[in-house]
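wait is this the right file?? whatever heres the structure
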């Protein structure tokens, strides 16, 4: 059951009878409920690896004592040859990115040793508003996976530059922050709004300060005076690291770092920088941020981040300290993150400290998984509130073409898949429509939430390869409008209509035919079918897109499709309103900037 985070949230743990039993068991006057015996304790305080047994009474650790010195217990778990650690804590993540329900996500990660997650459900909030938040709150209530909910700060991520399915102002944030299961404000992505003291953004932050809860950040590319201003507003963490130098600068600034595993190419230099320090900063935690379903199925959640960091040369004890004790300290949850008497019995027995395969997983003192398989029930809740989110009629090919007068025009283009920048090119106009210039890819965004007219806005990308087909998706951060990439309008319409018919999801089309579809009928983001089925469907779509466009490296650029409309990031981005630029605070409804002839 999801823990309560404010006053009184640990009544169950602090029950007088429970504490009395635990004290008696620690003295040796009563037996333990469970005894974890024969393992090597990974001490995340001292870094020691030492033999020790752990006695549990209900959800409490009652005793950590010399190996084989006690045998009195209702149940004994044999940890011989294994390494006993606190349960892993993922300090920043989005369940929706794995395209499955919270219950399915819990099954996937609990079996691998992740016992706590900090979930920012801003994807559901951007589609369904307060109803989405209420559903998320209900969905975590009875999960064996401890879930700390955060209040989405950016719904939409860039007000005035895009339109989502809802609009959360300070009043909405105040309501959500009053919920006991909510631990703070989720990643604040509207960086310019914070730095420039935009009234809307300032009021949202103030609600977090009044509530005395965490305010988490998204400080992509910030440094110097801008970073100081961002932090002075009350924001205390960041996961948007771009280099080892950026990591060190933000550690020195005093931010809590949520080191994410979703940017694997950066992990080796992060490890080198940490090793060069000679110690692990107490303000360094780990997170997954976004995990696609096939990655989750094949590699896991936060356990995979720990595993890769160790493979890149980080000491296992440091990786585990970041994922347990440091994370618990960040969350001000001093009952978590450490195997010690009086703490929560969230415990993992790993087979080794290289592959981190979980032999036993206990959550709140209850065995929930063995040998990588769940043994506890994980309840689902009704998903009907997430259905019917596609409020959009079928599209025609002309919807994706750009109208223009004249015979030749100058166009504004969006250059590069990441760290976008403005560029220009010229194009011919035939029969009132622009002929896509050679080397460009069309990107179209259509509002699909029923809050505005569903007019398709199309722009032109450069640096995205040559497309022989199209890809459509409603997973499009963070407003999750229908976004279509393509080389021709006919295939774009075919892919878009396949997604609309599916009630949301992804589709690829080429030669006028749909070649792959992944239905995501819940919010246009997730599905209630098992993870294996979603992972297979996602692979099929990714492979189909790989046959449409040649790009390098293929997986990284495909991933960029889902963030191409993130208007809060610096640089031009296509949205349902046109080409938006957060620095210039304006939107070009059309990419045509001049008629040349």
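ok assuming it is, sequence goes like this
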């Amino acid at each position: 059951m999801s823990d309560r985070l404010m006053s009184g949230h640990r009544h169950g743990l602090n029950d007088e009878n429970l504490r009395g039993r635990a004290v008696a068991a620690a003295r040796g006057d009563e037996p333990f409920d469970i005894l974890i015996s024969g393992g090597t304790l990974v001490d995340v305080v001292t870094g020691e690896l030492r033999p020790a047994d752990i006695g549990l009474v209900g959800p409490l650790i009652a005793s950590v004592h010399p190996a084989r010195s006690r045998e009195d217990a209702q149940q004994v778990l044999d940890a011989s040859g294994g390494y006993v650690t606190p349960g892993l804590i993922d300090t920043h993540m989005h369940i929706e990115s794995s395209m499955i329900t919270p219950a399915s996500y819990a099954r996937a990660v609990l079996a691998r040793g992740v016992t706590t997650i900090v979930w920012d459900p801003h994807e559901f909030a951007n589609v369904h508003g307060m109803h989405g938040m209420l559903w998320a709150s209900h969905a975590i209530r009875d999960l064996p996976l401890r879930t700390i909910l955060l209040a989405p700060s950016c719904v939409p991520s860039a007000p005035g530059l895009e339109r989502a399915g809802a609009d959360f102002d300070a009043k909405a944030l105040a309501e959500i922050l009053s919920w006991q299961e909510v631990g703070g404000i989720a990643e604040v992505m509207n960086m310019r709004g914070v730095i420039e003291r935009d009234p809307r953004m300032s009021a949202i932050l103030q609600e977090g300060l009044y509530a005395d809860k965490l305010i988490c950040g998204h400080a992509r590319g910030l440094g110097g005076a801008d970073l100081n201003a961002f932090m002075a507003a009350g924001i205390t963490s960041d996961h948007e690291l771009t280099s080892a130098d950026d990591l060190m600068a933000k550690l020195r600034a005093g931010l809590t770092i949520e080191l994410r595993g979703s940017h694997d190419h950066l992990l080796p230099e992060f490890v080198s920088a940490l090793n060069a320090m000679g110690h692990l900063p107490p303000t360094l935690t780990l997170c997954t941020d976004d995990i696609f379903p096939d990655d989750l199925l094949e590699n896991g959640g936060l356990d995979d981040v720990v595993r890769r960091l160790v493979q890149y040369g980080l000491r296992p004890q440091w990786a585990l300290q970041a994922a347990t004790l440091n994370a618990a300290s960040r969350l001000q949850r001093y009952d978590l993150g450490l195997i010690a008497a009086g703490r929560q019995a969230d415990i993992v027995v790993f087979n080794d400290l290289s592959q981190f395969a979980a032999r036993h997983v206990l959550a709140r003192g209850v065995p929930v998984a063995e040998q990588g398989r769940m043994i506890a029930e994980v309840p689902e809740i009704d998903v009907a509130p997430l259905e019917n989110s596609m409020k959009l009629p079928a599209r025609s090919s002309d919807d994706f073409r750009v109208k223009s007068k004249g015979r030749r025009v100058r166009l504004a283009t969006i250059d590069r898949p990441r760290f976008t920048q403005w560029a220009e090119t010229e194009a011919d106009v035939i029969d009132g429509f622009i002929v896509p210039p050679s080397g460009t890819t069309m990107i179209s965004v259509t509002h699909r939430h029923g809050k505005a007219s569903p007019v398709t806005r199309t722009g032109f990308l450069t640096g995205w390869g040559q497309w022989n087909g199209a890809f459509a998706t409603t997973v499009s951060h963070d407003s999750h409008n229908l976004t279509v990439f393509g080389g021709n309008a006919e295939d774009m319409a075919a892919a878009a209509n396949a997604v609309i018919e599916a009630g949301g999801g992804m589709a690829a089309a080429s030669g006028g035919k749909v070649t792959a579809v992944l239905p995501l009928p819940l919010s246009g983001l997730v599905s209630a079918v098992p993870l294996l089925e979603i992972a297979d469907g996602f692979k099929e779509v990714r492979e189909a897109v790989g046959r449409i466009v040649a790009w390098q490296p293929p997986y990284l650029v495909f991933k960029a499709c889902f963030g191409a409309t993130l208007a809060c990031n610096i640089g031009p981005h296509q949205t349902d309103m046109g080409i938006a630029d957060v620095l210039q605070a304006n939107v070009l409804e059309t990419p045509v900037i001049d008629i040349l002839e």
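The longest strand covers residues 421-430. so i think its the right one actually
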